[in-house]
Write a structure and sequence with these properties.
six-stranded mixed beta sheet; about 35% helix; two-stranded antiparallel sheet; alpha/beta; Rossmann fold; about 250 residues; single chain
């Protein structure tokens, strides 16, 4: 057609078909997916298993999409699993690292947010955490959101955090991260107060992420992780169809 660049003519097809065809090229953005896994002591138990599976699944899906993947584990600081990985074969290195990593220490997401390397254009950051931080998460999420690229939070929860019906009587509550103890008597009124406090905190996180344009998805540790992650990616795809900027749905390829 008039205006086509003759430098892109396919001479092999011309020799076979005696017709002129122009080669078309598709440019692909070179993208890095940063997976930040909270390994603090509050993540122990079923939440840790769900979080590790989620980190492995996100890493695998990203590698299959030809993206680079860099995995970090976070507590009061940040540690990289290694250099950014590319290619499906790199998943074995990530699996080995996740299998050998456990929970320990406290939570300082603000320090973690400061330690992450700069996000290049098109980068995606996926934070996998229960978001229990004594300093709160407002500043840390704000800092992560302003690094550039996209930020998605997989909020790992234990349904017992919202339903303390298993608690009753005289108890000593122990902070899993600091070891601080608190003697309480749990009755119906206190269970209602605990439930209301947890719901208020979760609602605060929902509002914070909505205001800052952060993709938030809640992952119940008791649910099948794979099914919930598929739900998350479907949600992201729906955002894309509505014209939102998120492209994490491309991980489904």
């Amino acid at each position: 057609m008039p205006g086509d660049d003759i430098r892109h003519l396919d001479w092999h097809l011309y020799a076979r078909l005696d017709a002129l065809f122009v080669k078309l090229f598709e440019a692909r953005e070179d993208r890095t997916v940063q997976v930040v896994l909270d390994r603090s002591a509050s993540m122990a138990g079923s939440k840790w298993e769900a979080a590790r599976h989620a980190a492995a699944a996100v890493s695998w899906a990203s590698l299959c999409s030809l993206d680079r993947v860099q995995l970090f584990v976070a507590d009061r600081g940040l540690r990289a699993e290694g250099r950014p990985a590319r290619g499906r074969g790199a998943i074995h290195r990530i699996f080995r690292y996740l299998q050998g990593t456990g929970t320990a220490g406290g939570t300082d997401l603000l320090t973690v947010s400061k330690g992450l390397p700069p996000a290049r254009a098109g980068a995606i950051t996926v934070l996998i955490s229960d978001l229990w931080d004594p300093a709160g998460v407002d500043q840390s999420l704000a800092r992560l959101a302003h690094r550039g690229g996209e930020l998605h939070v997989l909020h790992v929860v234990d349904r017992r955090e919202l339903d303390p019906s298993h608690l009753s009587g005289d108890l000593t509550l122990v902070d899993s991260e600091t070891g601080a103890e608190l003697a309480v008597t749990v009755d119906r009124t206190m269970r209602q107060d605990l439930r209301a406090a947890a719901e208020e905190y979760f609602a605060t996180i929902d509002d914070l992420c909505r205001r800052r344009g952060i993709g938030l998805f809640r992952l119940d540790a008791a649910d099948p992780v794979e099914d919930r992650l598929i739900d998350w990616l479907r949600t992201a795809d729906e955002l894309v169809r509505r014209g939102a900027s998120s492209r994490v749905g491309s991980l489904r390829r």
